[in-house]
Amino acid sequence: MTRLPTATARGKALARDLQGLNVQVSCEPPDLWAMSRDCWPRSLLWTKAGVAPHPPDVVAWPADVEQVAAIVKLAAERQIAVVPFGAGSGVCGGTVPVRGGIALDLKKLTGPLKIELEKRTAEVGAGLNGQRFEELLNAEGATLGHFPSSIYCSTVGGWLAARSAGQLSSRYGKIEDMVLSIEAVDGTGAIVRTLDGPSAGPDLTQLVVGSEGTLAVITSARLRIWPRPRKQWLRGIRFPGVQDGMRALRSIMRSGLRPAVARLYDPLDTLLAGGGAGSARDGRSPKGGAFQWSGGAALQVPQPLKWVVEGAQAEALKIALKAPTLLNRLVDALPAASLMILGFEGDSDLDLDGEGEAALALCRAEKGADLGPSPGERWLANRYKISYRQSPLFSAGAFVDTMEVATTWDRLDVLYGNVRRAVQNHAFVLAHFSHAYLEGCSIYFTMIGWAGENVGDAEGDLEEAESRYDACWKAALNAVADTGATLSHHHGIGLAKQVFLPREHGEGMRQLRALKKAFDPSGILNPGKLLL
After folding, report:
1. Handedness of CA 470, 476, 481, 486 (dihedral sign)
2. pLDDT at position 309
């Protein structure tokens, strides 16, 4: 049972002062608990243990930018932390209020919404849910082209704060490529409104985007939109090995083609993503232990791997995950084939067929075999499901986490191998390659490790689980930094990755801290994050 945080004298006093600003507030234990963490898997271990080690003092729901400004100004005068909160779907601990203070829930900031398809722009409040925003755009014949896996449980402001990427980023770009201007509140309570880019001199919009609430609270934005495409072209392509697929992906991006979807799965993730009747990703269990390639023979998967990918009962999962090195070696013994999901979208069948055939020719040059549209169509129908299938693993005693890093094409295979080797003694690891560009590509690793079945029974069990989790992440991030790759492509930094920031930015950390001082002289905005 969760031990809910209790209201403090400071929290009650803050609540009274904020009510004087006509702001809706709460010090109720369930509200404090809900705002004490996001979906960072380490904080999900806290939830399983029934503890909330970092609750805010009070939760506030501002109704407009003026209320946000008034709250921040009051907090600056009293040296009280303010932590912006979108929908809580972040996976890096970016909204954990490590110094208490005010949890600033921005979900009331949903308007005014102004969609101008002729101008290709939309003005939107930071608190609007991502899926709702896309539905409203679709009703006007438009799309943002931004489809993160968290679209059902994330907000526009959260996307901007963490430099989010959607599943169609190779065509439409990441969120920082879509934002034209923003409205935000800095750490003094001043309202900052940037002009539509391009900007003369340094771009203030791009300084704030990705700063995870440490420089300013984003309250609304003006974004680039597109007419909604009427047609899609989708394919699955099988390669003899993941390196063949990497070369094909690089060739496609360097050719000038811009696929909407270009995702390459490593051998194990291929079995999950590309399996027909046996795909754990589409919610159906393998029959008789066989995973079926589209148009290919059934593949027998070793029993320990089945326990993990099917989310087996705790005892079987425990046996498998307590030997992660063995599990990873079993993966290496699987067939090396890798699946690519490739897709284009637009308004003309002729154009789509031409782009698709050009991409297929590049894939055939790297030994790719066209599997037809079915794998791509299956991916599209199930593309949001995998993130919601992790709960049984947590319940059984595992932790599941994802790490999205990126590098240039020449380092991509090295990065893939280095991270797998670094993590193999800590967790079961699989990966796919997505968000491909002219210069390089992102790798999205999934790590499944043993936390312990009794995390909720004793504090010692939680500490042991956190220690296992931290050791896995430290090994993974060391490998990323050693390879010269970036620590994050689209999840942000939060608490999970910040200690490695100096290895990436070097002397640049001094300039970043100077920016923090300029935007937030009192240091109240999301303190304890980004080492600022």
Report:
1. negative
2. 66
